[in-house]
């Protein structure tokens, strides 16, 4: 393994981190509302334990503003719509601004018609997709999201070694059940999200065996396979590595990743992760369903009973408890809100460098 030794962490209270990140984006050119949204969503990823989609992204996002890949202050454009669907263009605006607008259009239509489909193209990074499932769930809706990332080929198809898909997350959110953690499946279709290779390359949690595949067709868990030689605290460019991420679940996960390209890329109109000169963009096909319009008045009670039943399963060797989707995130959020957010030293150092360059004061950590 070429990862650096496990590094100590800095611990930052959630509010301090949110305000610090918001101040950085304010100076980088966002208005106060957009800077606040970006900070809140990155913090949400850290709080739920998805550090790969948290404040580790700040330096990349700022580079994206500088290069024009992401545009500040954008709104969605409605390409076409009907009472039950909308096709939206995100105009390369921040996913933290475009995502909530797209979800809110889906919520409004599904409340009126019982269901709605929203096809979003050309959004900058939409971050943790679970946030969008949670937003719909808070409005009482079931939602299903298929996502792709054009110009971000990272994952080899089942049986292949060359990159053909992006990490293509799928998310399903269920409206909150009284007093229970929210049911939320939110997962990349690669064994790990690219950001987890990024975290591992900085000395964080090592990758599971075989998360990557080399050009020689051999499974690997070494971040070098994706990024090439690692410079301490240096940038990680997936274009430098010769290998690929692997899809989860062999041919089945690979098939799901394939279909995300078709649904979120081809159908939404932004494009698939094939060879392209177009810049990075997330596409997202979202389906919103109002459970009250399905004649299932006991939907919440049945769901709660079923969750409880599933959790009564005896555990496998070495496992303490059977968890429902979304439970690990809910537990992490409660812990990190109470105890502050642990950040790798390299992540904190990069945040401080970005802040200093932009003239933002660094809070104590
Ligand atoms: P993961 O592997 O940590 O978790 C996936 C899902 O499994 C979650 O719903 C979680 O609740 C559930 N889970 C985890 N442990 C469990 C357990 N022991 N029992 C039951 N359920 C359990 O997540 P991931 O695949 O690494 O994805 C990380 C994040 O990256 C997601 O938020 C995803 O939306 C995001 N992502 C975004 C993009 C993008 O282009 N915007 C691309 C890829 C991934």
Distance between the termini: 30 Å
Helicity range: 25-40%
- How many distinct folded domains? 3
Overall mean pLDDT stands at 94
Quickly give the CATH architecture of the largest domain.
2-Layer Sandwich
Which structural class is indicated by helix and strand composition?
A: alpha+beta
Please state how the strands of the largest beta sheet are arranged side by side.
Answer: 2-3-4-12-5-7-8
* Small ligands present: nicotinamide-adenine-dinucleotide
- Percent of residues in beta strands? 15-25%
Query: In CATH, what is the class of the largest domain?
Result: Alpha Beta
Number of strands: 13
Secondary-structure element string = EHHHEEHEHEEEEHEEHEHEHHEH
Assembly form of the protein:
single chain
**Unreliable residue runs:** 1-6
Labels describing this entry:
single chain, 38% helix, binds nicotinamide-adenine-dinucleotide, alpha+beta, Ribosomal Protein S8, Chain: A, domain 1, 365 residues, globular, 4-stranded mixed beta sheet, 3 domains, 7-stranded mixed beta sheet, Hypothetical Oxidoreductase Yiak, Chain: A, domain 1, 13 strands, disordered N terminus
Task: Give the structure's gist in a few sentences.
The chain has 11 helices and 13 strands. It has 365 residues and is α+β, with helices and mostly antiparallel strands. The protein is globular and about 55 Å long.
């Amino acid at each position: 393994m070429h990862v650096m030794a496990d590094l100590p962490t800095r611990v930052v209270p959630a509010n301090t981190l949110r305000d610090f990140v918001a101040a950085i984006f304010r100076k980088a050119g966002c208005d106060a509302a957009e800077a606040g949204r970006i900070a809140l969503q990155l913090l949400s990823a850290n709080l739920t334990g998805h550090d790969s989609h948290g404040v580790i992204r700040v330096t990349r996002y700022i580079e994206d503003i500088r290069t024009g890949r992401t545009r500040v202050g954008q709104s969605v454009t409605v390409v076409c719509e009907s009472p039950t669907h909308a096709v939206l263009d995100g105009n390369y605006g921040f996913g933290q601004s475009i995502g909530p607008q797209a979800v809110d259009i889906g919520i409004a239509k599904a409340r009126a018609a019982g269901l709605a489909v929203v096809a979003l193209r050309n959004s900058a990074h939409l971050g943790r997709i679970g946030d969008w499932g949670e937003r719909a769930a808070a409005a009482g809706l079931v939602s299903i999201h298929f996502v792709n990332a054009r110009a971000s080929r990272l994952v080899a198809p089942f049986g292949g070694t060359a990159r053909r898909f992006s990490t293509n997350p799928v998310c399903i959110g269920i409206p909150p059940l009284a007093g229970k953690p929210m049911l939320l499946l939110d997962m990349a279709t690669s064994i790990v999200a690219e950001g987890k290779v990024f975290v591992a390359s900085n000395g964080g949690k090592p990758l599971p065996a075989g998360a990557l595949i080399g050009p020689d067709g051999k499974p690997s868990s070494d971040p070098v396979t994706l990024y090439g030689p690692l410079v301490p605290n240096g940038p990680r460019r997936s274009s430098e590595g010769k290998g690929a991420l692997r899809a989860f679940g062999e041919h089945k996960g690979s098939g799901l990743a394939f279909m995300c390209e078709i649904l979120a890329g081809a159908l939404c109109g932004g494009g698939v992760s094939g060879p392209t000169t177009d810049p990075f963009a997330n596409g997202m096909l979202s389906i919103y369903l109002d459970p009250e319009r399905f004649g299932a008045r006991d939907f919440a009670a049945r769901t709660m009973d079923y969750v409880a039943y599933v959790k009564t399963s005896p555990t496998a060797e070495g496992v303490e408890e059977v968890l429902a989707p979304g439970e690990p995130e809910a537990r992490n959020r409660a812990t990190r809100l109470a105890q502050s957010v642990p950040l790798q030293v390299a992540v904190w150092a990069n945040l401080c460098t970005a802040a200093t360059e932009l003239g933002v004061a660094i809070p104590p950590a």
